[in-house]
Amino acid sequence: MIESLQHLPPAAGSNGELASQFTDLAPPLTARQAAVEAARCLYCYDAPCMNACPTGIDVASFIKNIHDGNIDGAAHGILKANIFGGSCARVCPTEILCEDSCVRNNPSEREPVRIGLLQRYAVDNANFTSHPFQRAPATGKVIAVVGAGPAGLSCAHRLAMLGNDVVVYEARPKAGGLNEYGIARYKLPGDFAQREVDFLMSIGGIHIEYGRKLGENLSLAELHTRYDAVFLGIGLGASRALGLTGEDAPGLMAAIDYIAALRQASDLSTLPVPRRAVVIGAGNTAIDMAVQIKRLGAEDVTLVYRRGLESMSATGHEIEIAKANYVRIRTWAAPLEVLLDESGRVSGMRFEQTRMEEGRLVRTGGYIEIAADAVFKAIGQSMSEDGLQESLARELARDGDRIQIDSRFRTALPGIYAGGDCVALGQDLTVQAVQHGKLAALSIHEDIQARISATTEAAWPT
Ligand SMILES: Cc1cc2nc3c(=O)[nH]c(=O)nc-3n(C[C@H](O)[C@H](O)[C@H](O)COP(=O)(O)OP(=O)(O)OC[C@H]3O[C@@H](n4cnc5c(N)ncnc54)[C@H](O)[C@@H]3O)c2cc1C
Ligand code: SF4
């Protein structure tokens, strides 16, 4: 919790000055820029960019629509495949997905077509008079979705489109999952995440109950009995621990908790900000934490990783953002000890240097100490077990700590499906969670309809 840093001074500067550090990282294209960029697309047959998109957006076709001035058509094509097309256009690591596979991504062509920015242009500038998708005739079926993140809401939207009603149970006071509470503030600035939720809800047939937490005031067994199917999209709510003494000391906290507080802060000048910070980790969360604390005014930010730069899971683009924000990256150092001052607060970290020996990471016996007023751990997320303690939930098969599913998003329990970060498949990306939700909705709908057909056939033998 952010209370862990309450002994630190608040950010220097007014809310307005600080907010100016968190404006759009990648500003939108103007109409002219969009037209020029759209003209660079070759509208490839069997376009590799489309195959690289986890939600299968028909990239060539939406870019052609932009080129022809049909912005609503372009947005419709994007949202049909990915109802979170607006946020994915802002947060997707396009440099390792669609833009990486673009045929123009080679030195002689200068750079790939800027698909992410074009997608954003289309979705932001569409002018729909009502929700762009019609609901199919009512099926009379009601499905429970647990978790209002990208996976849960994508599932809810597709189920509603197919004619079902959906009740979404969300533990937090707002919907959107990590789009609302986790993504860096300069990637999804302002109230974009909430506007996107409002947009997708406008299809109708979806009701969200807030403050309903599985394992606390919501039971899986009850949902299983009451609804025609259940989808679990509960993400990965817990932060991995360092396993060191002093982990609970004031000054040490999980990066995701600080980022959530930063995203929800209406006045950034109230946030406690260390002068010197250490961030432990190598993924995009670690980079987001380091860059955001630097932008809030920390003078000296060091990101520490136990392996080499080439093994970092953050993309090259993210690492460049960290460097551009003067974040120091220290590799080959494993956390060893939390250093505390005489009042028991964090004063730094001791690390043991590491190296690779015959393919294994080993400690060298050399030590480094980095002084810090705050240490943020960003060494990965795991499933919060609180939600899965009741006897029925314990019957869900697991892959490690994640929920095991088959290729149709079915868990080991009939009628219960799962997707997004909480399951074992794929990368932990927003776009992947959206695709899981969409495909799970199709499975749920087909399974329910198949059950109805089987019952009808049994009742009317030929
Ligand atoms: C700091 C950070 C930065 C990221 N940046 C990017 C990025 O730039 N680009 C990108 O593509 N991906 C990024 N990701 C990953 C991306 O946010 C996730 O892959 C995506 O949000 C997963 O969606 P989800 O719906 O599975 O889970 P979540 O978004 O985590 O949503 C899960 C929802 O379930 C609710 N919930 C949890 N437990 C319960 C319970 N027991 N009962 C009821 N409700 C519950 C939660 O409150 C939440 O609303 C980032 C992740 C983090 C942590
Ligand atoms: S690969 Fe590049 S050029 Fe080809 S359709 Fe996709 S965006 Fe256009």
Structure description:
This protein has 462 residues and is of the alpha/beta class. It contains 17 helices and 17 strands. The protein folds into three domains: 23-125, Alpha-helical ferredoxin (Fumarate Reductase Iron-sulfur Protein, Chain B, domain 2), CATH 1.10.1060.10; 142-237 and 383-459, 3-Layer(bba) Sandwich (FAD/NAD(P)-binding domain), CATH 3.50.50; 239-381, FAD/NAD(P)-binding domain (3-Layer(bba) Sandwich). The chain has helices at 15-19, 31-38, 48-52, 59-67, 71-81, 85-91, 98-101, 115-125, 150-161, 178-181, 192-201, 220-226, 255-264, 284-295, 316-324, 391-394, 430-459, and strands at 142-146, 165-170, 206-210, 229-232, 238-239, 252-254, 276-280, 300-304, 328-330, 333-340, 346-357, 360-371, 374-377, 381-382, 398-399, 402-403, 416-418. The chain starts with 14 loop residues before the first helix and ends with a helix. The mean pLDDT is 95. Iron/sulfur cluster is lined by residues 41-44, 47-49, 59-60, 63, 102-104, 113, 115.
